[in-house]
Amino acid sequence: MIELLTTIDSIVWGPAMIALLLGTHIYLTFRTGFIQRKLPQAIRMSVKGGEGGKGDISSFGALATALAATIGTGSIVGVATAILAGGPGAVFWMWIAGIFGIATKYVETYAAVKYRVRDKSGQMLGGAMFVWKRAFAKRDGTVPWWATLGAVAFAAFAVVATVGTGSAVQAAAISGIVTSSIPAIPAWVVALVIVVAVAAVIFGGVRSIARVCEWLVPIMAGAYALGCIVIICLNGAVLGDTLGLIIECAFTPHAAFGGAVGSGLMMALQYGCARGLFSNESGLGTAPIVAAAAKTKNPAEQALVSMTGAFWSTVVICALTGIVLVSTMIVEPQIGADILANPSVYTGAALASAAFADIPYVGTPVLVLGMCSFAYSTILGWSYYGNRCVAYLFGPKGIKPYQVIYVAVAFFGAIGVGDVVWTISDIGNALMAIPNIIVVLLLSGMIAKETKHFVYDDHLDEVADEPVPVVKGPQF
Description:
- This protein has one domain (about 10-455): Up-down Bundle (Amino acid/polyamine transporter I), CATH 1.20.1740.
- The chain has 19 helices and four strands.
- The chain has helices at about 1-10, 15-30, 40-45, 60-70, 75-85, 90-115, 130-135, 145-180, 185-200, 205-235, 240-250, 265-280, 285-290, 300-330, 335-340, 345-355, 365-395, 400-415, 420-455, and strands at about 115-120, 125, 255, 260-265.
- It is globular, with a radius of gyration of 21 Å.
- The two termini are about 30 Å apart.
- This is Amino acid carrier protein.
- It is a multi-pass membrane protein.
- It is found in: Cell membrane.
């Protein structure tokens, strides 16, 4: 079973998926008139709070929740793994994937906000499932079978992915970090703490999750970024060599770190793009689910705010991590040789730990606390994604059972989960991206036209007079 699932996983996350995502990023970049040039304006807008708009939470709250789900352990361990597998050049391609992914994040968020709905309690619902349902509905209200299929496929695969990637995997990461650092603490104790900490927040709904993420995300990301900057300063003498090696290895075969790590163009491109695509989640359709709950005057306003998430997660956090790891391995090439001599699932974590250990006294604690807070915030953010998809599939009555299962899976993940759950959730991640990418490509012409009106013709303060319908029960 594990071998079969692993084979499926390698296929769905193979070159075809990477080409589909990266190709979509590049196409939408040109389709939107290179919306990335509006990034400075978008960053300023992200802290204004969405005054005067309709929604449940502030624009920053929606962004913080999405970032909480995006900036996970993959921003540390995943980058290290990409470097060890694809060489230093992987950092460059990761950065490129992040730059182009900003456009996809904008388009998918625009669609989610434009076609969002309210449930009978008044809370906003949005995401690719509602985009499929509303964008292609006929005049008499009926929805074509293929649109219904796209909506159900996205929601179903998203629920599978959230339980595994968002709950089990992240809880296992927290447990592994804590028990390895403090062996006296048993895994079941860590599991109980995770259950209590998660349940206390997610049962309060999106407002509760957003409140926690609004203060947790800036603190955890800021502390981690500061730690990275300190290490870069400590390795300042080789900073030029580090950047040169990253660029050189991105385009030419090169042996790095005393020959411990080799790289070629295709390996660097494959692993760098794969990690960059996964780290910012552009194209997966996850962040738009929470963006649909934001207070915003029009879809373009929140889409601009949301697209900054791809910038912070990949262009900043992952890039800082990459520079730290490459510079550390230049200064201490034996680190790479020692780690690769004993490869395991913890290889990436070992490289990150070795780099942060260079900061006297506080380096290792900063990394441990950073990885724990990243994983915890990811659990919170992904719980909301699953919550909204369950509401689409089964109606409000399905939310509480889902939350109970989500918390229970976190407990079992923390005390040791099998590879099956990890692999199934990874497959779910890839499969939910497909209907999301299809629908944003189908609507890209309309979104490009409206973007010209709202963004390039300077009408961002205009209130979109579009009704938000109220729905009841399952939506398929």
